[in-house]
Each structure stands twice: as structure tokens, then as C-alpha cells.
């Protein structure tokens, strides 16, 4: 199986760098690898009309996020990664000084 690797993954904070939604940012909710698209929280909200059913007796207009091409997003650096590496370095230094 060929697995396509991207520069972002689910849960990352990203910023849209081109297109109609340029400048907006949010967390990735889902990655669609076959279509090379991502769903970003609060970006490209689309309205979907739902017909009458048991769940929606009078019908409904649901709002949800629409997909954006993965090339139009940029990863926002996380401070967590920097903190984790700094903690590992200090632990390594302490161990060296003890021995």
C-alpha cells in the first residue's frame, strides 16, 4: 500500500495562505489524502440542506466545514514541541553531571 505523506496532520494548528479564506487559522479536523484536502475548524463554512426525516421532522439547514486543498495551508509552529525538547536536554545534562 502506498501511503501519501503530508506536511500536516489531524490536530495541527494551521493558517490558510491562499484562496478566499487567506489569513484565517484553525485546527485540522480531518485529512482527506485521496483528494489532497483538509477540513479546518471554522474555515469555509458551507450550508447543507437536509430533507425531512425522523431526526429532522421539519428539515434543516446544517452548517459544516468544507474542504481546502492541502497546498493552501501552512503549519503554525507549536510551542509544545520546543518545550519537550528543552526538557529532554536538561535531563540529559543532569544525568551527565551526576556520572
Residue windows where pLDDT falls under 50 for at least 5 positions: none
Biggest sheet architecture: 5 strands, antiparallel
Radius of gyration using CA atoms only: 20 Å
The tally of beta strands, per DSSP, is: 7
* Count of folded domains: 1
What is the CATH third-level topology name?
SH3 type barrels
How helix-rich are the residues, as a percent range?
A: 10-25%
Q: Could you spell the SSE succession in H and E letters?
A: EEEEEEEH
What share of the residues does DSSP label as strand, in percent?
A: 25-35%
Give the CA-based shape: elongated
The structure class reads alpha+beta
* Total of DSSP H or I helical runs spanning 4+ residues: 1
Q: What is the CATH architecture assignment?
A: Roll
Give the integer mean of the pLDDT values: 88
Distance between the termini: 47 Å
Strand order of the largest sheet: 6-3-2-1-7
Top CATH class: Mainly Beta
Amino acid at each position: 500500500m502506498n501511503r501519501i505523506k503530508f506536511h500536516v496532520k489531524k490536530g495541527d494548528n494551521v493558517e490558510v495562505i491562499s484562496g478566499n479564506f487567506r489569513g484565517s487559522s484553525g485546527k485540522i479536523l480531518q485529512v482527506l489524502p485521496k483528494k489532497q484536502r483538509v477540513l479546518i475548524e471554522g474555515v469555509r463554512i458551507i450550508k447543507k440542506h437536509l430533507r425531512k426525516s425522523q431526526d429532522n421532522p421539519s428539515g434543516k439547514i446544517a452548517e459544516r466545514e468544507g474542504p481546502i486543498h492541502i497546498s493552501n495551508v501552512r503549519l503554525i509552529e507549536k510551542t509544545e514541541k520546543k518545550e519537550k525538547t528543552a526538557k529532554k536536554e536538561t535531563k540529559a545534562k543532569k544525568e551527565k553531571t551526576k556520572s
